Amino acid sequence: MTTHAVPTGSPLTVARTTRPRTLAAESTLVTTATGRRWLAVTRLATGFIFLWAFLDKTFGLGFSTPVERAWINGGTPAQGFLLSPGVKGPLAPFFQSLASPLVDVLFMAGMLGIGAAVMLGVGLRISAVAGSALMLLMYVAEWPFAAGTGSTNPLVDYHIIYALALIVVAVLAAGDTWGLGAWWKSLPLVQKFRWLA
User: If exposure means fewest CB atoms within 10 Å of the residue's CB, which of 29, 50, 153, 173 is most exposed?
Assistant: First the structure.
């Protein structure tokens, strides 16, 4: 007597589990061209926030960083923030203890990497996680929960909005419109390691 393996479950379930999964295209998640275009504008604007911060802190373009405090002139972008009066609250000693040249390099690499990836529309999942973590750390470092901290809202400020924008851009695969997202997701490495999408 021979036995045959019989798939359990409905044929639809069996077919779903054997078909290779593909990364979602933006057009399947956002069904109108207008929606995809506005999402692309949101992605580009959000990416530019991070890229601009990198450029201004590196070259001292005079907007938030004067030329004499530019990174290329020996400035310390992360240390400058971490040791500033802007860092408040019960976690201030912890954040001040992080101030070091290594943190300057990591901070600047993060700003450049997040900004470039989001603007190009590639690696949006990683960018959303890294950028949101960075924004949440800066949010807690500034401790907006008390009056007189400089924040106009104790719960939702620009750090939270930037983090949410990064998450929306990643979840909706916003790199496909006016970006390199579709090409990026077709790469064998990204197909194998889906978290790189």
Answer: 153
Say if 177 falls within a structural domain: yes
pTM: 0.86
Segments forming the whole domain that contains residue 68:
32-196
Q: Is residue 137 packed enough to be buried (19+ CB in 10 Å), middle (13-18) or exposed (0-12)?
A: middle
Q: Average the pLDDT over 65-85 and give the result.
A: 96
* Separation CA 51–CA 43 (nearest Å): 12
What distances in angstroms separate CA 50 from CA 19, 21, 66, 70, 122, one per listed residue?
38, 32, 18, 16, 15
Structural domain contains residue 4: no
Task: Give 92: exposed, middle or buried? Use CB within 10 Å, 0-12, 13-18, 19+.
Answer: middle
